[in-house]
């Protein structure tokens, strides 16, 4: 059975390893420039970046385990979709390690994060999913999230469409 626990500062090394491993496994093929991928990974998963993030008051990192770590999540509380959109819990990241998808972990983790958001008094839950990740899009729509709008993630050499999905909780 998968469990979710809040990550602490001493988990930064584990999160860094899991972040580099899972992101590279699932998404490296989408990057046109290796240097841009490496810069993104450093920005998101380097030890200094994670040590700073783990001390944030507005977001939380979680580690999912089933005997051993199987994945992680990051959420931001009271985050607005845009200046006119609803405010609620933003699921910034929900990544499973290579070999850990398709085991029901994602559904269990998502449900637990929604429960946490509800306990915090949040009434809306949202996330961004890459257009190039239709499997994740289908997963989230099966969990009751609906398309709100699209946005763009840009690097110097490429652009990617992100679908913003959300639901009332």
Radius of gyration: 15 Å
Low-confidence stretches: none
Alpha-carbon distance between the two ends: 24 Å
* Structural classification: alpha+beta
Describe the fold and architecture.
The protein is built from 5 helices and 7 strands. It is globular. Helix 2 packs parallel to helix 3 (47-53). A 7-stranded mixed sheet has the order 1-2-3-4-5-7-6, sandwiched between helices. Helices cover 35% and strands 36% of the residues. The protein has helices spanning 12-27, 34-45, 47-53, 105-119, 134-142, and strands at residues 3-6, 59-66, 68-80, 87-96, 124-130, 146-154, 159-168.
Quickly list its features.
169 residues, alpha+beta, 7-stranded mixed beta sheet, 5 helices
Kindly summarize this structure in a few lines.
The protein has helices at residues 12-27, 34-45, 47-53, 105-119, 134-142, and strands at residues 3-6, 59-66, 68-80, 87-96, 124-130, 146-154, 159-168. The chain is α+β, with helices and mostly antiparallel strands and 169 residues long. β4 (87-96), α4 (105-119) and β5 form a beta-alpha-beta unit.
């Amino acid at each position: 059975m998968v469990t979710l626990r809040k990550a602490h500062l001493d988990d930064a090394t584990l999160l860094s390893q899991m972040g580099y491993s899972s992101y590279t496994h699932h998404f490296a093929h989408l990057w046109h420039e290796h240097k841009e991928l490496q810069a993104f990974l450093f920005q998101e998963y380097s030890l200094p970046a994670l040590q700073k993030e783990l001390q944030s008051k507005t977001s939380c990192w979680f580690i999912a385990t089933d005997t051993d770590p199987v994945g992680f999540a990051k959420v931001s509380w009271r985050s607005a979709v845009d200046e006119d959109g609803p405010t609620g819990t933003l699921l910034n990241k929900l990544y499973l390690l290579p070999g850990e998808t398709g085991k029901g972990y994602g559904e269990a983790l998502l449900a637990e994060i929604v429960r946490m958001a509800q306990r915090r008094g949040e009434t809306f839950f949202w996330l961004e999913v890459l257009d190039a990740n239709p499997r994740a899009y289908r997963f989230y729509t099966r969990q009751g999230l609906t398309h709100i709008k699209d946005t763009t993630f840009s690097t110097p050499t490429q652009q990617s469409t992100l679908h913003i999905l959300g639901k009332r909780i």
